[in-house]
Specification:
Largest sheet: 6 strands, mixed
Number of strands: 6
Strand order of the largest sheet: 1-2-3-4-6-5
Strand content: 25-35%
Distance between the termini: 31 Å
Order of helices and strands: HHEEEHEHEE
Number of helices: 4
Helix content: 25-40%
Shape: globular
Mean pLDDT: 87
Structural class: alpha+beta
Length: 148
Amino acid sequence: MKLIDQDLSEPYSIYTYRFFVQQWPDLCLLAYDDTTGDCAGVIICKLEPHRRSYMDEHFASDKVELMRGYIGMIAVGTKYRKLGIGSSLVERALAAMEKRGADEVVLEAEVDNAGALALYERLGFIREKRLYRYYLSGTDAFRLKLWL
């Protein structure tokens, strides 16, 4: 929890993390430092059915329900950034979601979080829409989407 509290602008409550871990344990991943045993990074995801919208032209017209993955949170400790840990966590989570049948994956990122936006866009996510005053601080977010 220390990593999450330090590195997220708006961390979830402990109950939210427990919910994710209990419901989707294979989509909640940790990265550890082999030398110190410290937690270097964490990603929390889920996968659920999602009714397709009229704008989802990416999929066959007869597919009414999609499996939508969601990246709820990712945090990498300050001293572990720029080492590929965040990319590795996202790639492993995406692979696990795709293995379970995900059609798409979405997430929200703060508009001023250039590092996170660059990471996700490198992995193929696109900015689907801007969510005004999305966070409690009043900061806007981008909803990002990746079709698998």
